[in-house]
Amino acid sequence: MQPILELSGVVKAFGGLVVTDEVSFKVLPGEISAIIGPNGAGKTTLFNQITGALKPDRGSITFQGTDITGLDTQEIVARGMGRAFQITSIFPEETVLDNVRVACLSRAGHTRQPLKGLGAYKSSTEKAMALLTSLGLADQAHRLAFELAHGDQKLLDIGVALGLEPKLLLLDEPTAGMSPEERHLTRTLVQKLWKEFNLTLIFIEHDMDTVFGIAQVVRVLQQGRLLAEGTPDEIRANPEVVKAYLGEEL
Amino acid sequence: MEAASDKKALLFWGLFLVVFALVPISRNDYYLAMANRILVWGMFAVAFNMLFGVTGMLSFGQALFFGLGGYGVGLMVKYLGQAWFLAGLGAGVAAAAVVAYLLGYLVIRVSGVFFTILTLAFGQLAWQITFRWYRVTGGDDGIQGLVPTGILGDHIVYYYFCLILVACSVWFLKRLSASPQGLILRCVRQNPARVRFLGRRVRRNQRRIYVISSVFAALAGGLMAGVDNSIHTNMLNWTTSGEVILMSVLGGIHQFFGPFIGAAVIKVIEDVVGARTEYWSLIIGLVMMTMVLLFPRGLVGEWVSFKARMRSGGARKEGV
Predict the structure, then answer these.
(1) Quick one: pLDDT at residue B313?
(2) Does domain B2-319 have CATH number 1.10.3470?
(3) How far apart are CA B275 and CA B271, in angstroms?
């Protein structure tokens, strides 16, 4: 099977600090995988390069068979990549519905329309409501986004990404800052969304229950290098990984 | 819910048109001129606020486009004759569209306070040109005797001409603000980084609204030439840009009609207080200070939140 995403020899340095060091891997369509690693391992920087927010110094990134290295974020997103953020990134003064609806409208190519009200775009509105139902946010659809609890804002962030109907979805620490119960709910939800929307999903995560609970493939980054790649069982048994996470229960 | 708000909107527009349409009955040229000024500046302020309150771009140089509209009319009439009044209006608006499009590539490269300063700089540059280029623009003397062509030369007919143009413009801007394009503009203000992750280009959307807002600023400037029967370099000075900012803040930048109400209040203060004392700007200063310190949402913003508080207070009482 052809990989949906392929990184080969990606390098990025800030001054003398190499934050991505010859990273190569392939992600197969339909796969749900995790990227783990200590703070500063270059996980978010890697996401930034995949989504075009940063340009790699060297190497190439291929998405669905086309080279997207150096393309702008808008172009990459238009090709079917979505992303949710570590620090929640929503439109705080719009309603929960409009946060998702703007993504649906963008996907349908309606965002230049200057005359008709939002309600006139029935299919985008219905799609947004259906998404909010999947996320369990439907009863808060008409509240302003900043009024939501932290955990719900993180879900809304994912909802904005899903409104674009991405083929590949990148989640940056979906359970960050959540209580253990919320984390458990989110884990189940992410797995449900992955199946429901036929996504290829890559997530960065520190919570090991989430990583080993739902990922089919785990990739370990350390100081910008890909230290190991494999199934959860292989990663757990990998002595180098154990050394990197010395003292932590995997 | 949708039907109720439709009815409310219809009522509002009906009331707006009836009130302004009835002003000529007073047969008072002073009231007519004031109402005309409120209409034109109200449109200018609403269009400006699409840039400022909606998209988050504080331009301190909209005087440039207001002036372009005015000088479009002024220069056409001065050099080609009175029959060219309307053509001048169109030329000013078209020139503003072209200038805004080209200037947009320069000033929208930067954001925040740098955008504000750049727009101010270009505005002052244009002001200096009209000020110094005496041979063509008449410099500080401005251009007088700008009487609209034909039946538009009648004060009342010209007033209705302005009313129709303003109503259509404000109606268009209102639709725009409620449309998907309007939603994207609000998103650009709140979180431009995320807009890129919606697959949309931030600067392209900013340029689009910069051109739209500037076109209506030029239309306002051109219409004012017919209201005052003259134009002056002051139209291009930074104080004009400042005045339209004051109007928006006074009325409330997060309410569509806020700037229109702000424009009405400031024009009335200017006229009423200005007739009694030359220190009228002191009163405007005091009003602005009070508003910003005590009622930061602006007149319309405070009114809307007052209504919301009353409603939720009432609901609580019903609950008990």
Answers:
(1) 67
(2) yes
(3) 6
Test A93 with B186 for CB contact under 8 angstroms: yes
Mean pLDDT for the stretch of residues A188-208: 94
Is the Cβ pair B199, A74 closer than 8 Å? yes
Q: What is the pLDDT of residue B318?
A: 41
Q: Which residue has the tokens 């600090």?
A: A17
Nearest CA in chain B to A112: B181
Return d(Cα A99, Cα A132) in angstroms, integer: 10
pLDDT value at residue B13: 86
Distance from CA of B207 to the nearest CA of A (A): 13
CB proximity B204 to A under 8 Å: no
Query: Which of A53, A98, A115 is the closest to B183 by Cβ?
Result: A98
**Cα–Cα dist A100/A91, whole Å:** 10
Type of residue at A115 = L
- Distance CA(B260)–CA(B265), nearest Å, equals 9
**For chain B, what are the domain ranges?**
2-319
- Structure confidence at residue B279 (pLDDT): 83
Is residue B68 within 8 A of residue B96, CB to CB? The reply is: yes
Q: Do B179 and A115 touch (CB under 8 A)?
A: yes
Using CB atoms, pick whichever of A78, A93, A116 lies closest to residue B179.
A116
User: Among B127-136, B177-186, B198-207, B213-222, which is the least confidently predicted range?
Assistant: B127-136
Query: What Å distances lie between residue B199 and A4, A28, B160, CA to CA?
Result: 19, 24, 44
E strand or H helix at B83: none
Residue A63 pairs in a beta bridge with A5, A66
Report the chain A residue with the minimal C-alpha distance to residue B183.
A102
pLDDT per residue as tens digits for the range A19-76: 999 999 999 999 999 999 988 889 999 999 999 999 999 999 999 999 999 899 999 9
Report d(CA B122, CA B65) in Å as an integer.
11
Strand partners, A171: A84, A203
Per-residue pLDDT tens for A66-125? 999 989 999 999 999 999 999 999 999 999 999 999 999 999 999 898 989 898 999 999
Residue A230 CB-density burial (10 A; 0-12 exposed, 13-18 middle, 19+ buried) = middle
